[in-house]
Specification:
The protein is an alpha+beta fold. The protein is 20% helix and 45% strand. It has one domain: Hotdog Thioesterase (Thiol Ester Dehydrase, Chain A), CATH 3.10.129. The model has no long low-confidence stretch (mean pLDDT 94).
Length: 148
């Protein structure tokens, strides 16, 4: 199966450090599903303040990582000319559940799936795991918009 590294992801997404969260995209099934890997590091930008002496990855960043993984899957799968000069924007988040805290120095696996698309609007679902243990899950919608 196809795999994208961080540099290839940078060619698909406008995100840059510190907001580029995903490190690779694996198990890609074109426009259908993929697994994103995020290496949650001890020196992550949120660690010092969330929370001192007991760092936890904010749930909103897990949702952002889901969104980035979905955007990369979509951007990688659609025709290059169709995606040229476009961005993928998050529209809504539904049914987000945070089941266990994600702490630094782990590999977060984000299994995502495109549920449906209608024109420029896509709906996705995903589950986040650390060492096989479910940490979070969500459904969300995104749209492809023109860059300004």
């Amino acid at each position: 199966m196809e795999k994208l590294d961080r540099n290839q992801i940078k060619n698909l997404l406008p995100h840059r450090e510190p907001m580029l969260l995903i490190d690779e995209l694996t198990q890609i099934k074109k426009l259908h599903s993929a697994t994103a890997i995020m290496n949650v590091k001890k020196d992550g930008f949120y660690v010092q303040g969330h929370f001192p002496d007991q760092p936890v990855m904010p749930g909103v960043l897990i949702v952002e990582a889901f969104g980035q993984a979905a955007a990369a899957l979509t951007a990688h799968g659609i025709d290059k000319e169709t995606y040229d000069n476009k961005l993928v924007f998050l529209m809504s988040v539904e049914k987000a559940r945070f089941r266990n805290p994600v702490v630094p120095d782990c590999k977060l696996e984000l299994k995502i799936e495109a549920i449906r698309s209608h024109g420029r609007v896509w709906k996705y679902k995903g589950e986040a795991f650390v060492e096989g243990k479910k940490m979070a899950d969500a459904q969300w919608s995104a749209t492809i918009v023109d860059r300004k």
